[in-house]
Amino acid sequence: MYYYAKNVIEELKKSAQLVVFGAGIMALDVIGCLSEKPYQLQIECCLVSDISKNSSDVKGIPVMDFTMAENVINKDATVLVAAVEKNLESMMKCLCEKGYLHLIPLTYESDLWSLIRGNHYREYCRTQRRSYLTLEEELRFVKDQSECQTRRLCAGSMRSDGTDYLMSTDVIQNRVSVYTTRCHMDRKLQEDVTRYSWEIPIQAGAALTKERICKVCDDTGDHISYKNKQYCELTALYWIWKNDKSDYVGLGHYRRHFEVTREQLERLAGSDIDVVLTIPIFDYPSVEAVYRRDHVWDDWEIMCEAVSKISPEYVDTLSETQKGRYYYAYNMFIMRRKILETYCEWLFPILFYCEEHCKEKKDRYQNRYIGFLAEHLMSVYFMHHEKEYKIVHARKHFIEG
Questions:
Q1: Is the model's pTM score more than 0.85?
Q2: What is the DSSP letter of 289?
Q3: What whole-number distance in Å separates Cα of residue 98 and Cα of residue 32?
Q4: What is the mean pLDDT of residues 263-276?
Q5: What is the Cα–Cα distance from 13 to 137, expressed in whole angstroms?
Q6: Is residue 204 within 8 Å of 183, Cβ to Cβ?
Q7: Are β-strands 61-65 and 57-58 bridged in parallel, bridged antiparallel, or unpaired?
Q8: Distance CA 32, CA 30 (A)
Q9: In which band, very low, low, confident or very high, does the pLDDT at 195 lie, cut at 50, 70 and 90?
Q10: Is the peptide bond before 349 cis (omega within 30 degrees of 0)?
Q11: Per-residue confidence at 133, pLDDT binned at 50, 70, 90?
Q12: Ordered domains of the chain (ranges, CATH)
């Protein structure tokens, strides 16, 4: 039943009491996900440090401060710490000081939360009779088929030309290029990332600074590097589209990486897989509600206008995505070159329309609106073509601060 994080899920199901620490946005997502299939877990309460700053319940689950929970919640209860990354350390410290020691952190981008969402989305796809494929499963099949072929070929001792038949693994070079966006303002990482040596660092927004941190920069050849403040990693995507010619191309981030190996990428190049995406984001109660809460809704409406004018055949899929609870985030992917070309030819005219009609924001975060819109447009595009392309899902690793 559980493809991802089986040990953790079994631990949660065996817990005598299950508590969520927090009553905000992240807590709502955690409760919304874990209360439904395939989990259907019973959450006792939402624990908070200050009851006056929170509502009395979250989805009908009571919110309690430490005093209120004293005679209700045991100290050996399993506590799911639903937090944004910047608050996690202080929240963990607070719980430890209060005597709660069985803690499981679930930050917005944490690997564990991604895997928990993955089981939920897999179950959703099952009920909707939609396909959910994983990169590991599909590449394992490719490997098994290859090994069977090897055994068959090696069973004969001679080739047709009379020479000995010796099987060797061809190392596929320059067929899969996965880029990782970097910026001169990136945080210093505290984690060893040498296992991602197959990635190609690309400096995004290179036109906006004289500082150079990568051999590959997005301000060479045909580019839109100067638009980086609004387009974020999409200036790197544009550069890849116009300048890279590999059979498969991909994009990740300096803190977000596809959890794949060089061997898997070699097998990918010889597979029938068209597109690799990350496990989707879970937005409770809907994608629309969360976008309205976190961003400028006028931008979304302009995006809808752009789609209706430029690609009206996608309007229904856009509406379905907006009303749904899942979308593919981060503008992360690995896909066939021909599909990338078709996707970018569809995507960028819509984004250019949005740039022309949306207002520039004074807030630096909200001024990244093109990047935010593109995440949802990527979902629209691949949901629209899900029966045409073979799409698989890969694990993502987020480097915590």
A1: yes
A2: H
A3: 26
A4: 95
A5: 26
A6: yes
A7: antiparallel
A8: 5
A9: very high
A10: no
A11: very high
A12: 6-127 (3.40.50.720), 171-398 (3.90.550)
d(CA 202, CA 189) in angstroms, rounded, equals: 17
Neighbours of 199 (CB within 10 A): 17
User: How far is residue 59's CA from residue 83's CA, in Å, rounded to a whole number?
Assistant: 17
DSSP conformation letters of 314-360: GHHHHHHHHHSSEE--TT-EEEEHHHHHHHHHHHHHHHHHHHHHSPP
Backbone Cα Rg of the chain: 23
pLDDT at 99 over 70: yes
User: Positive or negative, the Cα torsion across 254, 364, 233, 121?
Assistant: positive
Q: Are 190 and 204 in contact (CB under 8 A)?
A: no
Residue 293, Cβ density class (10 Å: 0-12 exposed, 13-18 middle, ≥19 buried): exposed
Q: What are phi and psi of 58, to 5 degrees?
A: -125, 110
* The two structure tokens encoding residue 18: 């299950």
